[in-house]
Amino acid sequence: MSTYVSAPFPSSCALNRELLRNPLGANDDSSQPQSGEKSIPYIPGNPAVGLLPNEVHDQLSNELATPLLDELYAQLWLVARKSGHHIDALHTQKVKGRAIIPTEDPRLHLIWNRNKIYVKPVPLCLLNYEFWVRYLQPQKRALSENTSSVPKIEEPNASVFDSSTAIGFMRSYAFLVKSPLDFAIAKESYLIPTDIEWIEWSIFINHFRVVEDDSVAKRYHYGQLRLSRLNWAVRIFCPKSTRTRWFYENSYWSTTEFMERATFPLVFLFASVSIALSSMQVVLAVPVDRLWSHISDDHELQEMNRAFWLFSIAVVSLWLLTWVLLLGIPLVALCWQVFWGFRNREEEQARDTSTV
Prior knowledge:
Blueprint: E1 19-20, E2 39-40, E3 42-43, E4 46-50, H1 53-64, H2 67-71, H3 90-95, E5 99-102, E6 111-113, E7 116-119, H4 129-135, H5 163-176, H6 180-188, H7 198-209, E8 225-226, H8 227-237, H9 255-285, H10 299-355
Parallel strand pairs: 1-2, 5-7, 6-8
Antiparallel strand pairs: 3-4, 6-7
């Protein structure tokens, strides 16, 4: 297995070509590009962050790190399909009725809930070849054999950002934006810079489409994830990185919204129980021994009692059936999900064993 000697894409495919100044020699003329082009003393797209390695590391951590999902990695197979390719393209998300919600929170990247999916825009620095060579020099499998003359900046005690996270993030875009339609949706949703053309993007992102799981961070061994299942994973496994033990991400931002969603189930519960109790009262109030007796002074009253009694029995039976289905279907779905997770885990372990 060879090691990376360059960025995951050649310099000719870079979508951002800004030159970066050497932060350790900012006052030295020799640190400036010899071509006469102006260099920048900050990371592309963010003038507030300098080029010192520790500053870059902190910024990349804020932009890309997903510690909570990394902590839940060993349990994610129970709530999601372990496949980094399990990512619907943007136009498919639209077909499924999901709104594309841009977010700067990396925890929410590719998390979907009901009618929306959260997607983090591409940081401009990840489109810059020189930035990859300096700060994101991968250490694993090579995607490109191009050599580079760009010097890596070293700083004593500088923390190193795991480049597999950035590679996994960019690989997710290889599946999100596959066609010109996806590209147009991405621009409309402010996910990629507007000055990039489709052909340029297609050539660039194709270098990430061939990346295998062993070159990406653990989070990107999985694709899009359902928020409701992640909420349950947080409640059950109680990871240390979570902000709250009840939610991966709280979907309710006001008490009013929560009450609106909770009103219908509560009203349904109250109404169904009331109807069932009323029907039971009717059943108990009608003497059973007189319902089918042929000795009766008032046959019309007997027929009416019989009709009400049968109707009440039917209502109670329907009520029981409804609750059996309401409780049984989710239980069956949960059991199937656990079974599916175990089966896929065994298949994954079998593939890993055969590979070794």
